[in-house]
Batch of 3 targets.
Target 1
Amino acid sequence: MIVVSSCLAGLKVRYNGTDCLDDTIEKLLTDNKVRTVCPELMGGFSTPREPAEIIGGDGYDVLDGKAVVQDCTGNNVTQMYMDGAYKTLEFIKSLNAEMVVLKENSPSCGSSFIYTGCFDGTKKDGVGVTTAILRRNGIKVISENELFQ
């Protein structure tokens, strides 16, 4: 079983109400080989919502209380990201998923890159909150860019 970010499966759950349908994942969906998850929705967010970025580090730093997730209007939304990450962890454990493919650059799902926290479109090395909690629990997380490479 593979679990993928809902937006990569064509569901319009991103902060701006769009998706990021990935052709490879679309084929896996057709073959009924994947389940979808959106950590942000599991954390209580709705669609659309304000964009958010990690301020002061990455997902590991958020888990350790050294960084926060803030939306573009200045609201601290860290707890909702944490809630979504832990609910996603439980969902993935319940499926015994062998791999998780999450959307790169997201403050929740990024597995190699996230936005810098400046809300100017620049990126930095780092992981999102959900990726951090999954990896700390021994779950393999990759991005859509690494799928079948």
Target 2
Amino acid sequence: MRVDVSEMTEADLPRVMRLRARAWTAAYAGLVPAAYLDAMDPDTDARDRAGWFRASRGRVTDLLACDAEGELLGWASYGLPRPGEGPAGELFTLYAAPERVGTGVGRCLVDEVHGRLAGPVALWVLEGNHRARRFYERSGYRAEGTRRPDDYRAWGGPVLNELRYVRD
């Protein structure tokens, strides 16, 4: 399968938010409360993120992976690390369409990010997301011991932990 990677535009937000909602539902079912997943609204998310998308240019780059026909297969975003978080760059998001997980889409996007960022790269992943953790470990990342809470109590769930991974 041929995968083309290009930079996202604001016009791509609706389809990217639809992919994000599908990816979250597939990856986090049983981990994140169903009430949270059910409340995801891609149309609202696209509208809400438009201003942030414009304001983040120059600090964050969003990449799309598409097939030869233009079907959206995956999305990644990367950029400067959050204040006080150290390394040269951070991988903020990486999602593949659920039916494309395991086909190389995520690998293609991660390789593109690594080719664009010089130096160490960090990311955060939910502790219970074992599939993602294995993927990142195969991509050269290692858990470095830092945790932060991800609170789902407002949706009837627990406080989960995110783990910080770093690739030197």
Target 3
Amino acid sequence: MTDARAKARTKRGESRFAEGFALFAECLLTGVWIAVASLPLVTYPAAFAAGARHLGRRLAHERGGWREFTADFRAAVRRGWLVGIAGWAALAAVWVDVQAVRNGLPGGPLVGAVGVLALIGAAVAGLRAAAAWRPGASWRSLLAQAGRRTVLDPAGSFLIVGGLAVVVCSAWFSAPLAVAVLGAVAAAAVAVEERYRRR
């Protein structure tokens, strides 16, 4: 596959730097698309799935743009919105845990730490599932397989956690910057899944 990419790059006359910069720019644009598609709040899994597919097409030097992203988003949102609701429910449960810890619940720090770690693990599994999504795939089976990969591939999971940390820091620094960085998180999930597949 690397040889095919090198040949495609040579055929188009692009240098490695130009190709890398183009991919970086595509990640930033994809982040904006993901943010727009996530505005209904429960559609973020479908938005990340469509973004990951778009970046996968870009890496494979296939044609794709807003129209293909939208088609993938429509296909992913059919059942993906249920995953979005489950994610918000998990966040609400962890928020309740943290509030209980702050109010002095006995054994609270342990419960709070477990809740936060579980939420981070669920976010990583969700991103890995979105990166592996294909039209017609079942979100339930994708999440189950992604949960196993999250545990079996801790190095890849920590890379995604690092990407999430960059989004949080970017949002703290400047909210518009966090929007663009969402595409980099989708790219990280795609890269981690590709790395795991090649092992």
